[in-house]
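Thread: P-hydroxybenzoic acid complex, take 2
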Amino acid sequence: MVMAPLTRNRAGEGLVPTEMNVTYYQQRASAGLIISEGSQIADDALGYPLTPGIHNDEQVNGWRKVTDAVHREDGLIFVQLWHCGRVSHSSMLPNGMKPLAPSAIKPAGEVYTYEGMKPYETPQAIETSDIPRIIEQYRHAACCAVEAGFDGVEIHAANGYLLDQFLRDGSNKRDDQYGGSIENRARLIMEVTAAVCEIWDPKKVGIRLSPLQPFNDLYDSNPEATFSYMVKALNKFGLGYLHVTEMGAETPGAAGPHFDVSSLRKLWNGLYMTNSDYDYASANKALKDDKADLISFGKLFIANPDLPERFAKNAPLNQPDPDSFYGGDAKGYIDYPFLEPI
Ligand code: PHB
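Output below.
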């Protein structure tokens, strides 16, 4: 039972984890593994208000308190390394810069900023010569994760953020070695993974993909080919796990032609983690049917800090309150009750 990465927008000043964030993760340390909320690898990787960073000393010190607290409870915690790319806004970026993206294609819709919702801007296409700097930011964040005492890292290559924007052909129209063929569109993910694996034992590195997720206006003309290639290519690193979210499968065709995502498990030579609104019964069925080795739970872990115990005892579950998912205070964050001792 894994706690899925969950954006909660409650970091403190300087986007440093706070005492309240420490309590939140400590409360959930009975998960087999916690994957932290997405944490930006640099100032220009940020996409939303009050998401924590993992790239400077203050942030490392803040995260150190989180990892110490989780370890005191015998838990394990990976940090999710995040670059939001075009899912951002100049009002939140250094010197008012335009968000970075593979191509200058504006996503449909609006973005959540410190001043409320704003229309997306046309992002700036990353120069080929700027790509090594971005890979270096991942490497630096991976080093910060070591300093902060994490047990490993998850590379966020899902849900329409930068690495996913490169991978899918709806958002990547580049004509250099990072665009065009599937191999080229997968190149940044491969180079980032290689860089992270220079810092971390590959067995302590996971990666997350979301083949059918239309979120953040993502689309691919052939997701089955794109993601089959990606998964097979990633085998070469011997990573700790592949984390595939099935989210989007309920809106067939929105992210591109539909395919059976579970086919990816057969292409992967390691531990396979899946995710998408699983509950006790459906998760056990997926494990029994050998659809996955690990299941990550999101909303259920928000509302139930002691979810493993509740599953084990078949106890009633607290219901999550969506109004307090993103931002706010202790309410809906660290005040969900534990089971009463019997
Ligand atoms: C979100 O804030 O809604 C969000 C963040 C990261 C994800 C998915 C959703 O990967």
